[in-house]
Design a protein that fits this description.
The protein is α+β, with helices and mostly antiparallel strands. It has 4 domains: 78 residues, OB fold (Dihydrolipoamide Acetyltransferase, E2P) (Beta Barrel); 82 residues, Nucleic acid-binding proteins (OB fold (Dihydrolipoamide Acetyltransferase, E2P)), CATH 2.40.50; 73 residues, OB fold (Dihydrolipoamide Acetyltransferase, E2P) (Beta Barrel), CATH 2.40.50; 77 residues, Nucleic acid-binding proteins (OB fold (Dihydrolipoamide Acetyltransferase, E2P)), CATH 2.40.50.140. A hairpin with a 2-residue loop joins strand 8 and strand 9. The longest helix is centred in the N-terminal third of the chain and has 19 residues. It is elongated and about 105 Å long.
């Protein structure tokens, strides 16, 4: 052995170095690997079960753990070698922008936990595709976790967007793929065009709609010509809707359902004229007056100057939310969609 070593340019292994060898023996409590001139490597006891299917004589690759046993064996790891190869492969996939398939194995509040080629990574909720984004009313965390959990074990098509072996950081994105696909789909969608979609989520401020994989938002003010206080009374997840595109911004659509329907404001005010007496319900009180619902789709304003004279004509003293009172129509501005009322006798 001394003569063999003397004829070679011998270099000591470094911790983390990948080395090739052949399996010498596979026993219940240990696996030995021939490392050539560097001696014999031994697999840690906690990896034996992981590597028990190896055969004697099989060529393997292992990672140096940087220490030797009392018997002079070099401690090596198949699992770490696989992980190191995984990091190298992930770096290459990030550089090339290659699309890969992964399967989440667990979730937390922030997203999905994913393992790829022995390396554990993460996909934040913000990087999920529209169809997988966990919409929940008022940010209900338990509902978000429940929706994320439905993705465990489900193959997802993703890109690697961040790889940092030193800091053990690996981030995947589904949304990045959708961005490229959406750019092509958006070419045929312009402001003013009408689209069909499916409601994918209900939130306090509106409803999210999936339009062929593109995310659209119908703001609460664009759900109906009526005054909408609770979106869930008008729409449900899974509803098919027809909407008008009112803006396109950064790959997202702003939609309006009400603008595809006849405007009831015009029909409900067609019979009104100055001097008419109407009955309405107080819906909002402001420092300058109060808003009154006089038909299902029409709100009118009673300005503070039209509430009577005296010290007690402040809106909050004259009205309470939900009050029903009679008013006189003093002005109608059809182009501006405004009606002015008076409470004065």
């Amino acid at each position: 052995m001394d003569e063999l070593l003397a004829g070679q340019d011998f270099k000591a292994f470094e911790e983390g170095e990948l080395v090739n060898g052949k399996v010498l023996s596979v026993k219940k409590s240990e696996i030995l690997v021939d490392l050539g001139a560097h001696g014999v490597g031994i697999i840690p006891r906690n990896e034996v079960a992981f590597s028990r299917n190896l055969k004697v004589g099989e060529e393997v690759q292992a990672s140096i753990l940087g220490e030797e046993t009392e018997d002079g064996y070099q401690l090596v790891s198949f699992r770490k070698a696989a992980k190191d190869r995984g990091w190298d492969e992930l770096l290459a996939k990030k550089a090339s922008g290659e699309v890969i398939e992964v399967t989440p194995f667990d979730v937390n509040r922030g997203g999905l936990l994913i393992e790829f080629n022995g390396v554990r990574g993460f996909m934040p909720v913000s990087q999920l595709a529209v169809e997988h984004y966990p919409r929940a009313a008022a940010g209900d965390r338990s509902e978000i976790i429940q929706k994320l959990s439905s993705l465990i074990g489900k193959p997802l098509t993703v890109k690697v967007i961040d790889v940092d072996k030193k800091n053990n950081k690996l981030i995947f994105s589904e949304r990045d793929i959708a961005k490229t696909q959406n750019a092509e789909k958006l070419e045929g969608i312009t402001v003013g065009s009408e689209v069909d979609g499916v409601v994918s989520g209900i939130v306090d401020f509106g409803a999210f709609v999936n339009v062929g994989g593109i995310e659209g938002l119908v703001h609460i003010s664009e759900v109906s010509w009526e005054r909408v206080l609770d979106v869930s009374k008008y729409l449900k997840v899974g509803d098919e809707v027809h909407a008008k595109v009112i803006s396109v911004d950064n790959g997202r659509l702003s939609l309006s359902i009400k603008q595809t329907l006849p405007d009831p404001w015009l029909s409900e005010t067609a019979h009104l004229k100055k001097g008419d007496e109407v009955e309405g319900t107080i819906t909002r009180i402001t420092p300058f007056g109060a808003f009154v619902q006089i038909t299902p789709s029409v709100e009118a304003l009673v300005h503070i100057t039209e509430m009577g004279s005296g010290k007690n004509n402040a809106p909050e003293k004259v009205f309470a939310l939900g009050d029903k009172k009679k008013f006189t129509v003093i002005d109608i501005d059809l182009p501006a969609r405004k009606i002015a009322l008076s409470l004065k006798k």
